Amino acid sequence: MIKLRNLIIGFLYRKCLKPVFFLFDPQSVHDLMIWAGKLLGSNPITRGLISLMFNYQNPMLTQKVAGVEFKNPIGLAAGFDKEAHIAPILPSVGFGFEEAGSITAKPFSGNPRPWMWRLPEHKALRVNYGLKSSGAPKIHKYLLGKKFNFALGISIAKTNSEATSHVESGIEDYFESYKIFQDIGDYFTINISCPNTCEASPIFAQAENLDLLLAKLFSIPKTKPVFVKLSPDLAKDQLDGILQVGAKHPLDGFICTNLTKINLLNHHGKGGFSGKAVEELSNQMISKVYKFYGGKKNIIGCGGVFSAEDAYKKIKLGASLIQLITGMIFQGPQLISEINQGLVELLKKDGYNNISEAVGRDSH
Ligand SMILES: Cc1cc2nc3c(=O)[nH]c(=O)nc-3n(C[C@H](O)[C@H](O)[C@H](O)COP(=O)(O)O)c2cc1C
């Protein structure tokens, strides 16, 4: 029944809605989606209707990661809903969690437009937002006191400006957002991997700088799990340095990965690539991080997930949770339910009773 429902909605999305959406520029469609999502999330009737159309739940998908309860392993990655405007509707769409942000301490209007390009032949997007944000105090004020029906991650990044492009000022900038969001959300992500800032390369991807940053963040009592989001383009010794630093601190895990800068054939220009352009790099990094810690730190796998098989691959390489954006834009919002239902079938086929049993099973 759920399978048929998803097939029909997926068909209608790909044959009717998507061709219309793809006639317009990606930013306008994205703004429309946030507006519609906010409206649909604003009352119980529309939330119930969306739930009938999209939701799928199964206890085999429920797990605790870093002490946080996740109803299923599929989350909306940072960047789609920067200020958690659509958080109330996302559980009805079937998401197990979302990551709001990235949020920066100071407001920034973003890089010069355009910010997004679709590359359908590569099942990818090129993105050049450059950490657009209303600033931590304003977003905190908006979210304060709001309760959501799933886990909410808060992704914080360094304000994209020359003033914070030094180690000391950069640490203070991260710390400002970190302090402001102590009382909101279920976990933090420290985004050290935005490829679209005014820096030649992200300064906190250098192990010694990350060490100083984490020392500062953990100098105050930890209120929730903390993850670090990695770039897929790190050289081997750079990644090793970061992982060694990670072992020194009470860090809960890593998100593998952000956008890649490695250019796709015929697509030059500013920005980083998502979707299938980053999938293989993301999978390789999941595998390396899982092996480095022997499964002792948690991994959120992100990059190019378009199906249950794609998600399961990341899980078996070592990811406990999955995030996505691009797959949903290309396949439709029923993708979340399709993936969750497909995961249950794959788990049963392999003889597992719960998703957590499959984590890291293909890591050797
Ligand atoms: C429009 C857009 C905006 C993004 N903004 C952010 C961001 O603010 N912070 C961040 O950590 N990642 C950001 N990302 C990267 C995604 O979170 C994710 O790592 C990447 O898109 C790979 O996943 P996907 O292939 O499922 O899209 C953004 C991606 C997209 C497509």
Quick overview:
With 364 residues, this protein is of the alpha/beta class.
Strand order of the largest sheet: 3-4-7-8-9-10-12-13
Strand content: 15-25%
| Helix residue percentage | 25-40%
The whole-angstrom Rg is: 19 Å
The quaternary organization reads as: single chain
SS elements, strand count: 13
Distance between the ends = 38 Å
Instruction: Tell me, rounded to a whole number, the average pLDDT.
Output: 94
Level-2 CATH architecture: Alpha-Beta Barrel
**Continuous helix count:** 12
Order of helices and strands: HHHEEEHEEEHEHEHEHEEHEHEHH
Indicate the structural class.
Answer: alpha/beta
Morphology call: globular
| Overall tally of domains | 1
> What is the CATH topology descriptor?
TIM Barrel
